[in-house]
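Workshop exercise sheet. Pairs work together: one partner reads the sequence aloud, the other fills in the structure field after running the prediction. Swap roles for the next sheet.
Pair: D.N. / O.F.
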Amino acid sequence: NVSQTTDQNENETENEVENVSETELESDTETVGESATEQNLSSGESDGELAAIILESDCSDTDTFKDLYQRKGAQADALDFNGEWNRTNVVTGIAGSVWISNQDEEGFDFSGEFYYYSHSGEIEGRAYFVEEDLAIYQYEDEYADEEAEEEFIAFVRTDEGMEIRTTGSSWELGFGMNVFADGGYTLGEPEYTNAN
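Structure field:
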């Protein structure tokens, strides 16, 4: 009986150690992941790291967009964003176009039209560079109450063209029902997934 009790206690202790180790490991992994993101946000290095954060982020994470927007500044080597960009690899009913002009070291002017079948949305403003391949626009809603969360639109140049990511819902950006700007854009003719 004594040896069985000792064996049971040893097994229980081993299980507790394993459970604690797994929990600590998960906690350490989460901490490392947070630290890596915080390091990217706080480091002076760019080279597309900040753009990658936007592309990989949860678009409901307004704080990340806000933190990046606060880093805006002149980018002498900014990639060329000028032109008419069309949302691509979508069905024709959710098309979108963005016109970008007047690019300088600080940023660029843009206007956009977006559709969700019979619903539409328009927006225009000035996006500011955060790094050479990333510019962010802070949406100003003159009708929002003081407790409304700030909303942002990020423009990221990629090898394939341009990606747009936004925070907030369609109505928080002044768009019609279900209208969104997020997606991949091309300077050429867009490809529609329902084209014959």
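Discussion prompt: The radius of gyration is 23 Å. What would you look at next?
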